[in-house]
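SUBJECT: protein chain
CONTENTS: sequence, structure tokens:
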Amino acid sequence: IPLCAGITVTMGGVAVDGSARVIRPDDTPIAGLYAAGSTVGGIEGGPRAGYVGGLISAFLLGLVAAESAAADLGVA
């Protein structure tokens, strides 16, 4: 029986900006709140866009969130 490994991710979640900051419905960021991985919505592009890699997007958004948080704290 052929098998195909995969990871299930959500197609919905909180909205983030380019710095991985969680944003409100009016597109203003919530100070000090960042998100990455399956908690973030809108990364996949909707049900017709296809799968873009849950681990890759989680890793990259995690990196962006960490860099943004460090910059906001003046650590970068």
Summary: The helical segments are 54-73. Residues 21-73 form one domain. Strands lie at 21-23, 29-34.
